Amino acid sequence: xxxxxxxxxxxxxxxxxxxxxxxxxxxxxxxxxxxxxxxxxxxxxxxxxxxxxxxxxxxxxxxxxxxxxxxxxxxxxxxxxxxxxxxxxxxxxxxxxxxxxxxxxxxxxxxxxxxxxxxxxxxxxxxxxxxxxxxxxxxxxxxxxxxxxxxxxxxxxxxxxxxxxxxxxxxxxxxxxxxxxxxxxxxxxxxxxxxxxxxxxxxxxxxxxxxxxxxxxxxxxxxxxxxxxxxxxxxxxxxxxxxxxxxxx
Length: 249
Hints:
By secondary structure, the protein is mainly beta. It has 2 domains: about 35-135; about 145-249, no CATH class. About 5% of the residues lie in helices and about 50% in strands. It has 1 helix and 17 strands. It has one helix at about 1-15, and strands at about 35-40, 50-55, 65-75, 80-85, 90-100, 105-115, 120-125, 130-135, 145-150, 155, 160-165, 180, 180-185, 190-200, 205-215, 225-235, 240-249. The longest helix has 13 residues, at about 1-15. The radius of gyration is 27 Å and the shape is elongated.
C-alpha cells in the first residue's frame, strides 16, 4: 500500500508544471516617458523654451532607449526642434542647460552611461537657427600620449606640454619592465577615448566649460595609472573651442 501511495504521488508531480519551466513574455510600457525637463533661452530670442528629455524605460532600472531631446515653445507647446543623440540609449540619461559660449544663449549638454566601466555617451548641442553639435565624445580624439620613463614615472604629453605621474608605489607589479628603477625595455601607456564629461561653471568667464576625462592605462587593461582631465572652453567666435589646461588625477 505504501509503495502504491509513493507511485501515485510521483505520477501527480510529473504533471505539475514548475513555474521556472514556464516561458513568459514580460510586458513593458513602450511609451516614451519624460526623464527631465528644463526651461531656458535656447534660440536667442529672449524667451524661454522648454527642453524635454524623454525615452523608453524597459523595466524598473535606469536604462532607457529611443532617447530624444525636444525643444518646444513654452506657451504653445509647439515643437521647434527635435534632437536624437547618435547613441540614443544608455543608463541614467540626463540633460543640463547652460550658456557655454558666453553669448547669453544656452546650449544643451546631454550625457548617459554605457554601463561599461563607467564610460558614457556625451554631446553638447547649440540651436542657433539649426542644431549644431559642439561636442561629440566619439569624434573627440586625444592629442596626448603616455610612456614609461626611468625611476618609476609615466610621462603624459602632447606637442606642447607634459606632466609626470609617480608610480613608485607600484614597484612590485612593475618588475617585468624595471630593473632597480631603470627601464629594461620601452613601454607605452594608453590614453583612452573619452571616459566621462562634466559641465563646470567658470565664474571668471561667466559661462560653463566641459571637463573631459580620459583614463591612462598601464601595462595591463586593469592598471589605471590616473585620469587626464582637459578643460574645454567654448566661445562665440571663429576659434570655436579652446583646450586651455589639463590636469592629472
